[in-house]
Design goal:
By secondary structure, this protein is an alpha+beta fold. The protein contains 28 helices and 34 strands.
C-alpha cells in the first residue's frame, strides 16, 4: 500500500471573486516530509515523465480549502461549511438555493474528478477523456441514450423547484471550477495531461439527472438472468435449467410484506390489522394497469404460460406455448453472448453490472427498542470503489421555513444535490434493491426498410451520434430505435449483427432473412420524476409525505423503509413497474414482431404493496420476495433473491426480543456484522459423515468439527468450508454449464454442439470460459444455496456425477462428489495458503482491494500503485448479513461489499451512527481518502452529529462561503 500522505488545505481559490485561506485546525507534523517522500516515489518509480511534473504543489493543489472564507458569486447570504475530524461536511444556509449551491461547491472540492468521469460515462463521452479504448463503450452508451433521456426529464417532467435546485447545484460546481486547470482539481487530471489536452467543462443540471440512469442500469433487475437462461439452452434442457432456478421458498423465507393483500374491488393494496393511518400514494405512473393476473410460470429457457402459482413457490415451469424461442441453438447463443460482452465491458456505476447487487435494511418499532422509539439500519451492497460511491453530508437550513425547507443528513452521490438515504428531523429512510423486472429483451425481425410488427414493416427511428476521441479521429454512428423507443442493442456489436441470422425461433416466427436484432425495453428509457422524489423525501414529515414522495420514485425500483420520531415504522414499494400479457413472463427474450408480447401498462402507486406499523413490530428487507403471490395479482419478477439474509436478520431480531428483550443501537450494528453461513449449516453435518482415506484431507475435514459456522477473517474452518463449497459448485454444476457463463481460464473437454457429423461421433472439443471471474456462474449466491438444498434430497441425481480427473476419483452420487470436493479443496488451499492448516485463515483468501475506478484499473502501473489501496482481510461472505460478496466461479477475493452502514436512532438523532467504505475525499493523498476504511473493515461506526449543538461540538474545520 502506498503511503497515505496527509494534507487538508490548499485550494486558495479564485472561485467567483476572492478567497481568504485559513488554517485547517489539524496537526501538520511531518506533512512536508511525507510529501517529499511522495515526490521521491514519483521520481523513482515514474522516472522523468512523472517525477518532473508531479511536484509537491501538484499533489497539494487540489486539496480543498476547509477553513477561512471564499467568495462565491451567486450566493444570497453567507454559508457555513463545518467539517468533522473525518472531513464530513455539514452545510448551513438561509435559503434553499444557497444550500444546494454550497453542496455543489463542496462536493466538487472533494470529488470533482469522480463527478466528471460519471457525467462522461452517462453521456457516452468517455473517449474524450481516455481515448480510443472507450469508443465501443461510448457507442453502447449513446445507443442507450441516458443523457438524452435525462434532458427530456429536465425539460418536460421535473418540477420547477427541482430544476431550480439543480441549477443552484450546478452553479456551485462551476464556481469551484472557475479559474482552475486540471492539475488544480485532481491528481488524475495531471496524469491525463501527459496523453491528451482534456480540460473539464462546466457542469449542467442534466449532468446530475443523468447519474440516476446509471444507477438504475446497475439496479435494473433480471436482465442478466434472461440472458443466462437463454445461453444455458446450448448445454442444458428445460428441466435442468429449471433445476438451476428453483422456486422461491415462501414457506421458509418470509416476504417483506406479510400483512394485507390486493383488493380487487378498489384496485388497491390494502393492509389488514395495522394500527395508525395507512396513507395513500399519490402521483401517477403515466400508464394503465392490466396484463398478467397471477404469477408467472417458471423462469425456464422457454416462455412459460402464466397463471396462479401457489404461495409456496416462486413459479413452476410453464409450457413453451408461443415462446420466442423453443430452444436457442448456436446462433442466438452467440448473439446473446455478444450482448453479454457489450454489457460486461461497460464501466459500472454502483454495482457489478447488475449482478450481486443486494442490500440489507430493517426497522424495529419502539415497542422492542431500549429507547422506546424506532431504530432503522441500512447497508447497501454494491461494488467496492475508490472513492466510495457514497458521499456523507448534512444539509441544514438555519431556520426551516418556506424560503429554506431542508434539515437533512445522510448519504448522497457526488454530482447530485440532496440526500438519497438518511434522515431529517422527523423521519428516517433506507433503501434496498427490489429486483422487480423492469427490463425485457425483444428479438426483432430486421430488414432493409425497418422491422416487422404485427405483419407490417415499420421504419426505425434513427439519429446520428458523433463520438469525439482524445488523440484520435471522431467516429459517427447511427442509432436505431423502434417506434416505441426501444434501442436496437445488436447494432453495437459486429457479432450480434451477423449471428442474428441463426437465431432459433418457433414455427410461427417470420422468416429470418438477414437475421434478428435485439432491442431493449426498460423503464428508465422513459422520462421520469425520480429527482423530484429525492427532494420530496428529504423534507417529508410523516408517512403521508413519505408515500407521496415514493410515488415519484420511478427508477430504479427500490424497497423503501421508514421510521419516524413519533414512533411509526413502514415500508413501501415504489417504481414504474410494467404489466405484461398472459403470453409473456418476462423471463427470456420475447418476439418483438408480435404486439401480444408488448407491455400492457404499469402498476399504479396505490396498487403497490406496503406495510405500516405491522403487528410483528419490525420490517426486514434484504432483496427477498416482496409479497406472497397468492395475495397479489401482478407479476413483479420471477427472479427474487432467495431470502437467506432477510430470514437470518428476522431470526436475529426474534432472538433479541423473545422473553421481553429490547434492542439497542449497538445490537443493530452487531446484526449488520453477522457472519453466519446458512449453507454451511446445511452442508457441514453431511460433510463430516464422509469417509476419507487421505490423512491430510481428513485433517482438513476435522476443522469443520465444532465450527459455529461464522466466517471470521481469522477462521481456518471458514476458509476450508468455502473452498469445499466452491468445489462442490464447480464439480456439480459449473463444469456442466456452457462456456458463455463459465469463468475465463476454465477450459474443459466437452461434447460438440449442433454437430452435423455421424450420430456415433463422440469427439470432444476444448471450450474455455468467457466471463470475468466476478461475473461467472455458478457464483455461489443464495440461488445456488436453494439449488443445492433441493438437490440434496436427490442423492443419485445426475447433477452429482462428475468424471475422474488425474488421480482424483469420479463421482456417481452426492456423497462421492462431496468426498471429491473435500479432496480438491484441501489441495487447492495447500497451493494457496500452504500445507500447514494452522496457518490457514479466511481473511488470507477473502481480501478487499480498493481500486480507483479509472486510472487505478486501466492506467500505468505506477498510477495504480499511487491511487489504489489494500488489501484488507475481511470477515463475512456471500449471502451472509455481513455481505462481503465473492464469486465462487472466479475465486475468493471480495467483489461487492456493504458500501456504507448506518443505524438511525429516532429517539435521539445525535446517537445515530454511520460509516462509509472509504472517506470523504477523492484525492489520493488527502487524509480523508480512506480514513474510514479501517474502521469499516472492523465493523465500527462513527458518531453521526445532527443537531446544531452536536455538529458544533464535532466540528474541526469551518469554511465560510460569502456572496
Amino acid at each position: 500500500m502506498p503511503p497515505n500522505i496527509t494534507a487538508t488545505t490548499g485550494d486558495t481559490a479564485t472561485t467567483g471573486a476572492s478567497a481568504t485561506p485559513g488554517k485547517s485546525g489539524r496537526k501538520k507534523k511531518g506533512r512536508k516530509a511525507r510529501l517529499l517522500v511522495l515526490v521521491l516515489v514519483l521520481a523513482i518509480i515514474g522516472g522523468v515523465a512523472y517525477g518532473a511534473y508531479w511536484s509537491i504543489s501538484t499533489v497539494r493543489a487540489s486539496f480543498p480549502q476547509t477553513t477561512g472564507t471564499i467568495k462565491l458569486d451567486g450566493l444570497s447570504g453567507p454559508v457555513d461549511v463545518k467539517r468533522d475530524g473525518n472531513g464530513i461536511p455539514q452545510i448551513y444556509a438561509s435559503s434553499d438555493e444557497d444550500l444546494f449551491m454550497a453542496q455543489g461547491f463542496v462536493q466538487a472540492q472533494d470529488r470533482f474528478y469522480e463527478m466528471d468521469v460519471r457525467r462522461h460515462m452517462t453521456a457516452g463521452r468517455l473517449s474524450e477523456m481516455f481515448g480510443k479504448s472507450q469508443v465501443e463503450n461510448d457507442e453502447f452508451l449513446r445507443t442507450l441514450g441516458w443523457h438524452r433521456i435525462a434532458k427530456q426529464e429536465y425539460d418536460t417532467k421535473l418540477s420547477d423547484s427541482t430544476k431550480k435546485y439543480l441549477r443552484a447545484y450546478a452553479k456551485g460546481v462551476n464556481a469551484y471550477l472557475q479559474g482552475k486547470n486540471g492539475k488544480d482539481i485532481s491528481l488524475e487530471y495531471a496524469a491525463l495531461g501527459f496523453t491528451n489536452d482534456y480540460k473539464p467543462e462546466k457542469w449542467t443540471p442534466v449532468d446530475s439527472v443523468a447519474w440516476l440512469k446509471a444507477m438504475a442500469w446497475d439496479l435494473r433487475g433480471n436482465m442478466q438472468d434472461e440472458i443466462d437462461r437463454a445461453l444455458m439452452t446450448s448445454r442444458l434442457g428445460p428441466q435442468q435449467i429449471q433445476d438451476l432456478y428453483p422456486a422461491y421458498p415462501y414457506g421458509r423465507n418470509k416476504p417483506i410484506v406479510q400483512e394485507g393483500q390486493y383488493d380487487e374491488l378498489t384496485k388497491a393494496f390494502r393492509q389488514s390489522g395495522a394500527t395508525g393511518s395507512t396513507g395513500s400514494a399519490t402521483g401517477s405512473t403515466g400508464g394503465t394497469t392490466g396484463g398478467t393476473q397471477g404469477t408467472t410460470g417458471g423462469a425456464t429457457a422457454s416462455q412459460g404460460t402464466t397463471g396462479g402459482a401457489t404461495g409456496s413457490s416462486q413459479g413452476t415451469a410453464g409450457t413453451t406455448g408461443s415462446s420466442a424461442s423453443a430452444g436457442t441453438g448456436a446462433g442466438l447463443t452467440s448473439q446473446l453472448g455478444g450482448l453479454y460482452k457489450a454489457l460486461d465491458d461497460l464501466p459500472t456505476a454502483v454495482g457489478v453490472n447488475g449482478q450481486g447487487i443486494g442490500s440489507n435494511s430493517w426497522v424495529v418499532g419502539g415497542k422492542y427498542t431500549i429507547s422506546g422509539k424506532p431504530l432503522l439500519a441500512n447497508d447497501p451492497h454494491l461494488s467496492a470503489s475508490l472513492p466510495s460511491v457514497w458521499y456523507q453530508m448534512g444539509l441544514h437550513c438555519r431556520t426551516v421555513s418556506s424560503k429554506c425547507q431542508y434539515d437533512v443528513a445522510g448519504y448522497t452521490f457526488a454530482g447530485m444535490p440532496g440526500v438519497i438515504i438518511g434522515h431529517n428531523a422527523r423521519i428516517a429512510w433506507g433503501l434496498t434493491n427490489s429486483g422487480v423486472d423492469v427490463t425485457d429483451l425483444y428479438l426483432e425481425k430486421v430488414s432493409a426498410n425497418g422491422y416487422l410488427y404485427d405483419g407490417k414493416v415499420r421504419p426505425f427511428k434513427t439519429r446520428e451520434e458523433t463520438i469525439k476521441v482524445a488523440g484520435g479521429q471522431d467516429k459517427t454512428i447511427v442509432v436505431r430505435q423502434t417506434q416505441d423507443g426501444m434501442p436496437l442493442l445488436s447494432d453495437r456489436d459486429d457479432e450480434l449483427v451477423q449471428v442474428g441470422k441463426k437465431a432459433t425461433v418457433n414455427t410461427a416466427a417470420p422468416d429470418r432473412g438477414d437475421g434478428y436484432g435485439i432491442a431493449l425495453r426498460w423503464t428508465a428509457l422513459d422520462p421520469g420524476t425520480t429527482m423530484d422524489a429525492v427532494f420530496a423525501l428529504d423534507k417529508a414529515a410523516d408517512w403521508e409525505d413519505f408515500r407521496a414522495a415514493a410515488a415519484l420514485f420511478d427508477v430504479p425500483s427500490q424497497n423503501l423503509i421508514y421510521a419516524s420520531t413519533d414512533n411509526h415504522i413502514g415500508y413501501t414499494l415504489p417504481g414504474r413497474i410494467p404489466t405484461r400479457s398472459a403470453k409473456d413472463a418476462g423471463a427470456v427474450p420475447a418476439p418483438g414482431w408480435d404486439s401480444k408480447y408488448r407491455w400492457t401498462g404499469f402498476i399504479e402507486p396505490d396498487e403497490l404493496p406496503y406495510e405500516y406499523d405491522p403487528k410483528r413490530g419490525y420490517i426486514v428487507t434484504a432483496n427477498q420476495a416482496v409479497v406472497d403471490p397468492e395475495k397479489y395479482p401482478y407479476t413483479l419478477t420471477t427472479d427474487w433473491g432467495y431470502g437467506t439474509r432477510s430470514q437470518r436478520i428476522t431470526d436475529l431480531i426474534e432472538s433479541k426480543i423473545k422473553d421481553g428483550g429490547k434492542i439497542s443501537t449497538d445490537d443493530m450494528r452487531q446484526m449488520q456484522l453477522d457472519n453466519s453461513s446458512e449453507i454451511a449449516k446445511l452442508l457441514v453435518p453431511k460433510l463430516l459423515k464422509i469417509n476419507l482415506d487421505d490423512p491430510d484431507v481428513r485433517e482438513a475435514q476435522k476443522l469443520l468439527e465444532g465450527w459455529d459456522y461464522t466466517q471470521d477473517a481469522d477462521s481456518a474452518a471458514a476458509a476450508y468450508f468455502n473452498a469445499v463449497w466452491r468445489n462442490i459448485l464447480k464439480l456439480a454444476f459449473g463444469n456442466k454449464l456452457p462456456k458463455e457463463v463459465r469463468a475465463k481460464g476454465q477450459c474443459l473437454w466437452v461434447d460438440k454442439i449442433d454437430s452435423t457429423g455421424p450420430v456415433d461421433d463422440d469427439t470432444k472439443v476444448r471450450e474455455c470460459g468467457q466471463r470475468d471471474g466476478d461475473q461467472a456462474q455458478p457464483d455461489g449466491g443464495d440461488r445456488w444455496f436453494e439449488v443445492v438444498r433441493t438437490q440434496m434430497e436427490k442423492p443419485d441425481s445426475d447433477w452429482w456425477k462428475t468424471p475422474k480427473s488425474g488421480t482424483r476419483p469420479a463421482a456417481e452420487n452426492r456423497d462421492q462428489l462431496f468426498a471429491r470436493a473435500l479432496i480438491d479443496a484441501r489441495w487447492e488451499l495447500t497451493a494457496k495458503l500452504g500445507k500447514d492448516i494452522d496457518t490457514w485463515s479466511w481473511g488470507r483468501l477473502h481480501r478487499l482491494f480498493l481500486k480507483n475506478q479509472t486510472l487505478g484499473t486501466e492506467g500505468p502501473k505506477v498510477l495504480q500503485y499511487l491511487l489504489n489501496r489494500g488489501p484488507w482481510k475481511l470477515s463475512g461472505g456471500e449471502a451472509t448479513v455481513n455481505a462481503s460478496g465473492w464469486n465462487a466461479a472466479g475465486g475468493y477475493d471480495v467483489v461487492w461489499v456493504p458500501s456504507m452502514r448506518m443505524v438511525v436512532n429516532l429517539a435521539d438523532l445525535d446517537k445515530s451512527k454511520w460509516i462509509n467504505l472509504t472517506g470523504a475525499s477523492g484525492h489520493a493523498f488527502n487524509a480523508h481518502y480512506t480514513d474510514q476504511t479501517g474502521k469499516w473493515a472492523k465493523g465500527e461506526l462513527l458518531p453521526w452529529s445532527f443537531s446544531d449543538k452536536a455538529v458544533d461540538k464535532s466540528t474541526s474545520d469551518t469554511l465560510v462561503l460569502k456572496p
